[in-house]
Fold these 4 entries.
Entry 1:
Amino acid sequence: MTSKITIYLALFTLLSACAVAPTPSGINDPNEGVNRSFHSFNVGLDRALVRPASTAYGAILPAPVEAGVSNFASNLDVPGDVVNNILQGKPQFALQNTMRFALNTTAGIGGLFDFSSAIGLPGVETDFGETLHVWGVGEGSYVELPGFGPSTSRDAVGLVVDLVTNPAGKIVPDVAGGIDTAAQIGSRLGDRNRFSNTVDSLLYESADSYAQLRLLYLQKRRFELGQTEAESDATFVDPYEDPYAQ
Amino acid sequence: MRNDPFSRAVLTRRIFGAALAGGAAMALVPGAAFALDVNSARALIDKAIADVNSVINSGKAEPAMYKDFEQIFASYADVPVIARSALGVAARSASASQMSAFTTAYQGYIGRKYGRRFREFIGGKIEVTDARPVKSYYEVISVAYLQGESPFDLRWHVSNKSGKDLFFNIIIEGVNMLASERTEVGALLDARGGDIDALIQDLQKS
C-alpha cells in the first residue's frame, strides 16, 4: 500500500502543476499505421478466439450465473474506483462507492448480487485515465492497444496504473489472484456475447472498422469526461452550413 | 473500473436504428420546430415509439419491415441533407442526378442497415426530458431505456431549414450519427476509388 501511495503522490505532484486539460476536438492519430496493424491483430483475435469463446460462454452458462460472474468482477473493481474518486477530489463518490462495496460484499454475498443497485445506489465508475484528466492531462494521441482495444495515450497510462495498483489485490489477496482474473475474463466474454450483433456489425460490416471504432471511442470517452457539453457548439455538425454541403 | 473501452464504445451503436425510427416523430406537427416544448416533444416521441412498435409487431416479413422503417426515416428525417453530409467532400463534385440517385439509394440503405437491428428495440422506450434552442436549430434531450441496458442520453437535432420540421442528427451519449455516417460512406467511396456511381449501385444492393 505504501509504495502505491508514493506512486500516486509522485504523480500528483508532477501533474497538479498542469492547467485544466485542454478540450480535445477532431482526431489526433499520428501513429495510424501502427494502430491499424494492432487493429488487424485485435480483429483476428476476436474472430479466432474471443468471439467463439464468448458464444460458447453464453451458450453454456445460464443467464443468472453469467450475471453473478459479471457482478462479482465489477464489485472487485470498486475499491479501485474509490481510490480514483478520492484522487479526483470527489469524496461524495468515494463514499457512495464504499457503501456500495460494503453492501454488495455482504448482502450481495461476496459481490455475486448487485444488491446495491437494486436499492437505488448505483456505482460511480471511474478509472485512472479520468484522474489524469482531472489533474489536467490532455487526451494525447489515439492508440489501439493489442488485446485491449481503443484508448488514448493518457488513458493507456491510466489503464496500466489501474491494473498494477488494483487495491482489490491488497484487501483480499486470495481472491484477487486467479479468481479475479477468471471473473474479469468471464465478464468480458459475457459482454461480447450479449452485444454480439453490435460488435459484429462494427468489426465485420463497417467499410473501415478501424476508423469507426476510433470515432466511436473518442466521442464516447469525451462524453464520459464531460468534454462534450461545454464545447457542444464547437463540435456541432451543422449540415445546413457545412462547407461540404454547399 | 471502466477499463473496457471496447465494449463500451460499441454499445452506443446498436440503438441508432431505434433512434432513427423514434426521431421520426419530431416532424409530426408541421411548422412546430420552434414551438416545441418538453410536453409536445415527449408526446411526439411516444407516438413514434408506438409507430415503430407497431411495425415490429406487425408480423410482416423482415424485408417489408425494412421498407416501413425506411418510410419512417424518409418522412421525419431530412434525408437529402443527411445524405449530402454523409457523402462529405464528394458531394461538391457530384452532379444533380448523382446526388438524387445517391440520396434515394442511401435512404434504402439506412432503412435496411438499422432495420436489421430492430430486435434490440423490442420493449424499449424513450422519454423526452428537455428541449432547448441551440444556434439555428432545436436540441431535444431524451433518455433511452432499452432492455438489459442502463439508461442512456439521447439527443435529437431538429431543424426547419428544409421548410419542414425534420431531424438531421442524433447524438447518443456523445456519439454523433452524422459523423459516423460520414466515416462509413467516406470509406465505402474510397474503397471504390471515389466512383460515386459504383457506390450508388452497391448501396442499392446492400
Note: Residues 230-235 of chain A have pLDDT under 50 and may be disordered.
Entry 2:
Amino acid sequence: MTGTRPATAAGDVARDVAGDVAAYALRLGDDALVLAQRLAGWVSRAPELEEDVALANIALDLLGQARTLLTYAGSFHGLSEDDLAYFRDERDFVNLHLVELPNGDFAVTIARQLLFSAYQLLLHERLAGSADETLAGVAAKAVKEVAYHRDHAVRWALRLGDGTAESHARMRTGVERCWPYVGELFESDPLVRRLAAAGVAVDPAELCPQWTAFVGGVLAEATLAVPDLPARITGGRRGVHTEHLGYLLAELQHLRRSHPEAATW
Amino acid sequence: MTADRPVPSGPVPSGPVPGQREWPLWEVFVRARRGLAHVHVGSLHAPDAELALRNARDVYTRRQEGVSLWVVPAAVITASSPDEKDPFFAPAADKVYRHPTFYELPDGVRNL
C-alpha cells in the first residue's frame, strides 16, 4: 500500500491534511472493525449453518477493510493496526453508533446490515474516486464486497418483511430498533468538509437522498413502513458512544491486553 | 436462533414438526472455469432458489472455486437406488467392446 503520506520535508499544511486523512481513515476503519466484531458474534449461532457462513464472510470482508484502514491511519503516527485495534479505549473509537448496536435477533441484524451496507456502498462508490490513492484503493475493493452485503440484507429484509406475521413483526421491530441511529450516518463536520473540498473524502450529507430513496424502496417492497422516530443523540465520531461499545471492546481487546508482550499471534 | 424455537412436548415426532418446516435441500453444482462442465460439489439448505444461490456462493465458492453456480432442488432429482446397483451397472463390467480401447488415438486429440 502506498499512499499520499507526505515526505518529511512537507510543510505544516501538508501535515494538517495528513492528520485529517489519518482521522478520516480511522473513522471508516472503526466502523468496519466494530461491525465485524458484532457480526462475528453470530458464528455458531445463526439460524442455519449456511447463514452462519454468510454472516462470517461479511464479517471477514469488513475485518479486511478495517485492517487496511487502521494500518493506513496508524502509518501517520507510527502505530500498527494492532496498536489501534487493541490499545485504544472507548473514547478513542470514532465509529458510528449504528454499528455498535447489539445483534438482537436475526431481523435486528438484518435491519442494521441493510441500513449500514446501503450507506457504505454509496460511500465507497464515491470514495473510489478519492484523490488519496490508498483510500481510493480500499474503496474500490470494498465496493464489490459491500454490494454483496447489501444484496444479502435486501433479500432477507424482503423475505422477513413480506413473510409471515411473525417475521414481519420482527423485521419491523428490527428496523425501528436501528432507525434512531440513522441520522448520524449523514452528519458532516469540519474535518470531512475540509477533506471533501480537497477531493479526498466523501461528505456523508451528500449520500442522504440516494440512501433514503434506496432504503425507502426496499422497505416499501418488504411491506414495512419507514419509521417516524426521533433521532438519538449522536457523537460516535467524537468518541462518545452508546453503553454497548465498552462491552464489545472488552471482548475484542482483553486477550491482547492480557498479553501485551506477546510478539506473535 | 435455536433457543427461540418452541420445545415440542410429548414424544419426539419423527417427521417434520408442523409449522417448523426445515428449509428444503438444494444440490449445488460449480463450474470451475469456462469450458468445463458444472460439477456437483455438495448440498445446502435454503428457503428458496435465490437464497440457495447466495448460500452456495458463500459455502462453496469462497476460495475462488468457480465462475458459475447451479442450484437444483434435491427433491426434483430422480436417483438410481443402491438396491438396483447390480441390474443397473453390473452388466457393463464384462463388455470391454464398449470401451474405445481398440483404437489408436491420433496425436493432438486431448481431453478424451
Note: The beta strands of chain B are 25-31, 39-45, 68-73.
Entry 3:
Amino acid sequence: MNTTLDTAQPAKAGREDMDRLDGAWYLDKLVQTLVFVGGISAIVFIIGIFAFITKEGLGFIIHDLNLKEFFLSPRWAPTSSYHPTYGILALIAGTASVTGLAMVVAVPFSLGAAIFIAEFASGKLREGLKIVVELLAAIPSVVWGFIGLTIMNPLIIKLFDVPVGLNVLNAGIILGLMAAPIMTSISEDALKAVPDRYREAAEALGATRWQVIYKTVLPAAKNGLLGAVLLGVGRAFGETMAVLMATGHAINIPTSVFDSVRALTATIAAELGETAEGSEHFQALFTIGIFLFLITFIINLTADLIVRGVRKG
Amino acid sequence: MFDATALNRRNHRVQGLFRLLFGTMTMLLIIPVLIILGTLIVEGGPALSIDFLFSAPTNGMTAGGIFPALLGTVWLVAVALLVSVPLGVAAAIYLSEYAGNNWLTRLINLAIINLAGVPSIVHALFGVGAFVLFFGMGTSILAASLTLAIMTLPVVIVATLQSLQAVPHAFREACWNMGATRWQTIRRVVLPNAISGILTGIILEVSRTAGETAPIMFTGAVFFSPFLPQGILDQTMALSLHLFVISTQVPNVPEHLPFAVALVLIAMVLLMNSLSIAFRVYLRGKKKW
C-alpha cells in the first residue's frame, strides 16, 4: 500500500538502504500485511454474507420464485401440503407497521432528549444522562421481547380492553424504546458537531437559547439528525427477537394498532429450525434474508452518505 | 439600561418552557425503562440464589437453575472474543496507522457500518450457510461463536479506532524521528497509550456478545441439553436463548422463573457496560495530554 504513505511517515526503504533490511524491517512488513488483512476482513465478511445467503437462496430464486406472488400475495403458507404459497406482502406490512409506529414513538422523543442533553444540560447532569442513554442501548433484544410478552401485554389488554395485547402497538412501543437510545446518542453527536462559533454568533445577535437551537443549531445539524433517524429505522427494521415475541406472530395485514402481525425477520427466526436443509421452504427463508440484507444495505448506505455530506459541508 | 424589558422576560419564559419540555421528553424515555427494570427486580429477584445460578434446569425446564445456560454463554463469548478481538484490533490499527484517505478505506468503513447494520437474523442465515453447512462445523459452539464474532466485530473496531486516534500524532512522529519502524512505533508507543481504551471496548464487546440471541439460534445454541459442552464442536445452551425458550416455548413455567433469567441476563450486561463506562471515566481523569 505504498500509495497510502504520506510525508509524515518513515521513508520507504529502497535497495540503497540495505542496512534497513534487517529483522525489524521484515517484521514491520509482516505486521503491515497482517493488519491489512484485518482491515479488509470487514469487506470480505460483507461480501461473504451476501454470497452465502444468496448461495442458499438461489435455488428458490431460479426455480420457484414468482416475483408477483412473492411481493404481492399476502399469503405466506410454505407448509401447505397441496399448494405452498410464498407471499411476503403481509410480512412486509407487519414489519412496516411496527417500524413505522416505533419511529412515531421514538423520533420526537429521541430528538427532544438529544437537544436537552446537548444544548440545555451541562456538567454532571449531561454526563449522567449520556451514561444512562448508553446503558439503555445495551439491554439485549430478547429481554425487550420478554418485557413485551410479560409486562406490556397485560398492560395493553387492561388499558384498551382488547383480547390480545401482543400486537402492532406492543411491538411498536418496544422497538421505539429500543431504537431511542441509539438515535438519541447519534443525534446528540450531530448537535455537538455544530461548531460553537455558530452558537456564539447567534447569541451575540441577541438570540435566546431556544432561538439559537431552532434557527442555528438544528438547521446546521439537519443531515446528521436525518442520518440518526435512518439508523434508527434500520435498527427497528432488522430487529428480530423483540418483534418475534411481541407482535403476536399472526400473518395479517394490520388495519389497526391492536392487530397482531408478523415481521419478516421473525418469520425466519420462527421457521428456519423446522425446515429441512435445501428444501423449497428453507431456500425461501434465505430469499427473505437476501431481501432484508439489501434493504438494510440501502438504508445504511443512505445514512452514511447523508452524515458524510455533513462532515464535508 | 440593564433592566429586563417585556421582550426579555418573555424570551426568558419561552426558554424555560422549552427546557422543561425537552427535559420531560428525556425523562419520558428513561422512566419507563426504570419502571421495567424495577418490575424485573421485584418479580425475579426473590427467585435468585447461588443455587439458581449453579444448578441445572429440572422438570422439563419448569424448575431448577440455569447453570448449563450460563456456562454455555461463557463458552460462546470466550470463543467469539478469541476471533473478534485480534481481528478487530488489527483492522483498527490498519485504519488508524496505515490506511490513506482513499477508496479502499471508504469501502472498509462502509463494510463496517453494514456489518453493524445487517439484521441479526441475516447474520444467523450466514452462519448456517457458511459455518454450519459449507465449512461442515455443524451446529456447534465454534459455528455460533464465529457468527457472533463477525456480527460484533464493528464494536471492537470502533472502540479500538477511537482510542488509537486519541494518541497524539506527535508521539508517533517523535518515535519515527528516532529511526523506529512503523511497527516498533505502534507496539512501543501507540498501543501502550491506547490499551486501556481498547480494554473498555473489549468489555463492551463481551456484553454485546452475551446478549445476542438470533445469531446463535440455528448455529450452535440448543433449547435444552442434558450435557455440559466439553469442547468447541459441542452444542450448548445459552442464557439469552434460554430466556426465549422458557418464556415462549415451554408450557407451565412458574412465572418467577423467566423473570429471574431476564434479571440475570440484564444484570450481567449492565454490569459489564457500567464497568466499561467507569473504566473510561477513570482513564479520562488520568490522561496526561
Note: Residues 1-9 of chain A have pLDDT under 50 and may be disordered.
Entry 4:
Amino acid sequence: MTGKEDVQKSMEEFYNFIYPKNVRDFESSEEYNTLIEDMTVALELMSEKTNGFSDISIEKIIEIINSENIGKVILLFRILTAVSKMNMETYFVSDLCGSGIFIPKIKIKKGEPVEREIKYGAETMSMPKYPKLIELAKNETTLLIEMINFFEKYNLMKKLLNLEGKNIEDVVELSKTLLKYSEKGAGAEKSGEEAEAIIKNKLELWGLVENIDYNKNDEKLTGILERKIEFLKQSGKISDEVKKEKIEKINEEKKSRQFDLVFPASNSNKEPKVIAQIVFYTSNTGSEGKKKTNQNINTSNYIKKILPEHSKEITNLLVLDGPGWIQMAGDFQKNEYLSENFVQIRTIDTKLKRILNECGFVYPIDIEIAILELKLKNKTTSKEKVLEIIVNKDNITANKDEIISQNPQFFDGKDDEDVIELSKDRHEIGKKFLILEKLQDITSSKKSQKFSVLIPSKTNLEISDTDIFINKDEIGLQDDEIETILKELEEEGTIIIQTV
Amino acid sequence: MASTNELEEFIKWSYPIDIVEVDDEGFLNEVSLEMECLLHECTIISKESLVDYLNKITKNRRVSLIHLFRILTGIAKTNFEIFFTHWIVEKTDNAKIIIVDSNRGKNDFALRLSISGKEVTMTVKTFADISSNKEIRENLIDFFNERNLIKKLSIIKNNSELGKDFLKYITRYDSRGSDAHKRGKMAEEKTRAKLEDFGLERNVDFNTTDWDTKKALIVRLDEEKKKNPSEEAQIELKATELTNMQINREADLVLTKTYPSLFIQSSFYGSDVASIADGTVNELDEERKLIKIANTVINNNKIAFIGLIDGPGWAYSISFQRLNRALNSVDSHFGLRTITTKLRKKIHEKNLTCPIDFEVGLLINNKKTKEIELINTVSSFYGISTEILKQELVKWKGRGKFDIEGDYIKLKEESEDIVKKIFVLDLAYLHANEEDSGKIIVPEKKPIKIEKLQELINSYNLQNDVKLDEILKSLEEEREIIKII
C-alpha cells in the first residue's frame, strides 16, 4: 500500500518533470498552412463569382462549385458553419439516411454481420468517409444540393452574405481561429504518436535498434504474452502442457490491448521484459483520463491472471505526460497504480533507462559511459575493465556474459586485455549520460552554494552544487565542463536546476 | 456478436442528431459587450494599451476580457488555464507549480501555482485577479499575442461588424467543447423525463444522481435476504465478494430505488470518439461483471443490465467492432426513440409497472372502472400477471396517481392526451399485425397498416376519442414511429 508520503513524492516528481507543451503544434504544421491557403482560395473564388458576396443563393453556389474547387469551397463552408469532417461523416450521413437517399445496410459474411454499408442508388459502399462524400457530391448534383442544404441548417447563406464588402485578408485572419477549432480536433489523438516519436528518438541516441531492441509497430498484449510463455517453456520453467493451457486461455480473449513500447521487440525473438502504453494529455480529458488509466490496471490484472507466478517478470509501465495533467491532479493521486508505474518524456534518459537496466538490459550507451569513465581517469579501456565497471553498477543486473551477448559490436572477438574503443562522435553524448548516472549516485548531504539539481533518481532528492563538485573526481570532468553539461541537460528538461 | 437484425434495428432507430445545445446567448453578449468597450476605450491597439486597459477594469470585467481574448485567438478555457500556467512558470522567475495539502474533496493533495510565494489556483478567475500585477498582465498579452491577438483586434477595430459576426461563429465553436460525458448525462436526463411522463417519480422510483453500483446491488441483496432467510449466509458471502471487488462503477439509472431490478448505463455519442468509446465498452463490461456476481444468488427476477446506447456517432461513425462490443456488453439496449416501447417492455419483464400502464387500462375502460376490471384489462393488454398488478396498483393508488370515486378508479383529465398517444403506440408495438404494405413502423416490428391500427382502436370502441391521424402525426414528430412515405 502506498502511503501519503509516497504519493506526495510521486506527485512531486511527476509535476516537476511534466512536459509543458503540446507535442504536436498544429499551427506550425504544413497541414495548417495548406488549409489556410485552400480557405483563402475559396474565399477569393466565392467573392469573385458572387460579386463580392452580394449574389448569394443555393442555386448560385451550385453553379460555382465544380470538380476542381469543390474540396476548397466545402472546406470554407465547414469552417464558417463549425462542421468538422467527422461531423459530416456522422450528421450529413445521418441526414441522408433519414431522407431515404442513403439506405443503411449491414454487410454479411459467412452468415455473420461484419460491417455497416450504405446503398446509394445502384451502388453499395462502405460507410462513406469525408473524401468519398466530396467525391459523390462532385458527380451527383442531388447530393451536392443535399450537402449545401445541410450547411444551410447552420445558416451558411447568411454567413456568406455577411462577408459582403469585407476585406478578404481580414476575413482570412479572423477565419484562422475558426479553422483552428474546426480542424485541430481531428489531430488530437496524434499526440500519443508524437510523444512516441520523441521517446523513440531518445532511445536511438542510447544506441538502441528499432524493431530489435524496441518495437517498430504497436504490439498486441496477447502476442507479448505468447512470446513470454514460449520463453518460459524453452527455459524449462513451464511444461509443454502448461504452455498449451496458457495459450488457450489467451486465445479466449477476443480483443487485445496494443502496446506502444515493447522491450525488446517481437522481432528479436527474445523475452519481452518491459512494456508501456503512452498516455499524453494536452488538455483536461475529464473522466476519459481515468478510463485510459483503468485500462492499464486491467492489463496488469490480466497479465497476473495468465501468468500468476511470472507476472512480475513483465514490467508494465505508463508513459504518463502532457500539460493537461495539471488539471487532473485528482486523477493522478486517486490512482495508486499510476503513481507507482509512470515514466515521462523528460525522465526517459533517467528513470526509464534505470528500469530497463534493472530488468537486465545493457545498451551501447552503458558500455560507452563505462569506457568514458575509464578514459577520463586515464585508465586502460580493456574489455575486462569495461565489463568490471559495468557489472559493479547499482542499476545493472546483467552479468558479464549477458552484457557481452547483448552488445556484440563492442566485445565480439575481443580478449580480456583488448582495448574497447569509443567512437569520437559518441563522446559528447557519453559525457551527458555519465553525468546523469553520477548525479543519480550522489547522496545529498551538503547545502547548496549557488544551485541545486533535481533529478528523478531513486531518492528523488535535490542534490546541491557542493555535493556535485565534491564528487567531481568520481565524474572526472572539469568544473566548467560539468556546468555546461548541466545547463544542456536543463535545457532538454532532463534535470531541473534551482538557483539559490 | 449482435445479430444483423439487431444492428439494422439499432441504426434505424438511432437518434439522428446531437442532443447538446451549443448556443449560449448570455456568454456571447458578455464577450461582445467587452469587445465593444475595449475597442471604444483603446484608440490604438498595442501591447501597452491592452496592458493598461486591463489595469483599469474591475476583476469581473477582466474575466470577461480574458474570455474574449481566448475566443478570438482560438484557445479553449481549459487549455488557456493549462497553457497559461505553464507559460507563467516558464517566463517568470518566481513561479512554479507546487503540491499543497488539499482541504477539500477526497484527495490528499492539490496543485497550486506559486508566484513570488503566493499560492493561487489555476483558473481564469485567479488569473484575472492576479492581473493586478503588471508583470502578469504583460505576460497575459504576450501569451495571447503569440496567437496574433493584436492583429485580430486591429482588424476588428476597423471593421466592427465583421468582428461581431466572427465572435458569434467562434463562440459557437468554443461552447461546443463540451465533453462526451455531458451527452451521456443529457440522454440520461431525457430518459428520466420520459419516465416521469409514465408517472414514475425521481428519487422514489429511480435515482437522480449516479449511484455506486456495488451499493445499489447490496440494497437488492438485502431484499433477497429478507425473502430467502435460509440463504442469508450465501447471499452475505456474495455481498462481501462484491464489496471487495477492485472495480468501482456508478450506475446512471436504477429502477427501483428500494428494489433494484434494472440497471441502465447511458452512452450517447454525437460523433466518433474512438478511444473514448472503447473506454465506455470496458466500463460496461465491468458493470456487467458486478451485476453477474449479484445475480448468482438471486433466484427469481434477476437484475437486468440495460444500455442506453444511442446517437449518430454510434450509428454511423464509431467502428463497427466497437458498436458490436457495446451492444454485446449489455443484456439489452434501447435508445432515446425507444424508451416508451423497448425500455417499458423491459420494465414489465422485471415485474415492474408504471402508472401509465394502468391509465391505458382506464382509457380502454371508458376512463373509469373497478379495480378488478382494471387489473384484468392491464394484464391482458400488457401480459403482466394479475398478482404483480394487484401489488403495483395498491402502490400507485397510495401515491395518488389516479382519481378515486368510491369503488371506482378514474383517469385524471390532465393525463388523457399522453395516455391516448401511448395507447396507440402500444397497440402498434404489442398487438398489431405486420404487413408488407403497411406504412407505420414501430421498433422491433415490420410495417403495420394504418387501417389495421384503426380497426384495433375501433375494437376497443375508442374511435371517437382517439384520433389516429393526429396521434400518428405527433408520434412521428416525436420520433417514436417511422412513417413510410
Note: The two ends of chain A are 36 Å apart (CA to CA).
